[in-house]
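Q: Sequence in, structure out?
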Amino acid sequence: MATPLSADRLLAALRAEGVRVVEHRSWRSNNRNAKGPWGPVHGVMIHHTVTSGTDASVRLCYDGHSALPGPLCHGVIAKDGTVYLVGNGRANHAGLGDGDVLAAVIAERALPADNEADTDGNARFYGFEAVNLGDGRDPWPAAQVEAVVRASAAILRAHGWGKAGDTSVIGHSEWQPGKVDPRGPGITMRDVRRRVAERLKHPADWSPGDTNPPNERPKEAPMHLYYERRNPVTLTPGDWYTITWDRVWAPEKGWSDRDLAQTLLKGEHTFSLDFAIRAEGLARGQEIQLRVARNHRRPGQEWARAKSWPISSPVHDGGRLHAAHHWQGHLPGSDDNRLVAEVLATGSAPIQIDELTASLLAWPA
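A: Exactly. Output:
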């Protein structure tokens, strides 16, 4: 019988495994313990959110909704691999599932088919919700799947699970009849379990392909930045607007203000960028387009557009819209290359955007 990890032990285990963690609001005391037991625990369950956008997904999983109070999991795994901790204790994520599956998880043996819903999974499993639409088409970026693997391995390592097998990590679809998560291009539970088992053969700070001793590993770490614009923007239909940002967050530094600036990243990096908007007053069938672009400046010349990557273009049913865009790419060269995010509205009437946020993960070349 395994006693659940304390908030401090869970946080330490995740960070030791190389997981980028954000502590969201009062996650340490956010739980459903008053409604049922929490523990003994036996495994980790992976879900997808059926949502897009990091901010909205984190808020939903922290607060829940009218039919299902939060927290809806213990951690939300963003597209860029950041894990946002939203709960500590019993969470509404697993529901009733198959007791035979639980017995197999405890014994670390092959999972049977889930054909019953007779056992409380919320008391027995840690839960992670990964940001994904769950439609079978929304891709799972490599950074997100790696975070699923590392977060799962961190918990297994902390409890000493995974020694007889690798079935302490399961998908929601393997627990509760009728569920399909996690699904989509880039993830299978078989692959996740294989990679978790491989991680557990190595120290917590191991990375695949890492053959250097720990004290000789490269010191360069990925850069994680979060941007906001606090004042609304009014879009003129038909014109691309390059978003300017006035607030930036960085690990260990927290929030800092800056003058309105377009640049999200400069110099040669590989990057993963998510940015999101909320817009008000759209007409039925009106379209918003979002894209990531690279600007370049030659000596003695003005900044000019060097490259625009493919757009996403949600069409709305009228009223309030929340739209998000994800892109992974490479920013070449020196500081004369700058990464920016842009948005365009169709139609005839101006559109007000009252929330703009961006999450950037970048690796120096």
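Confidence is low (pLDDT under 50) at residues 211-219.
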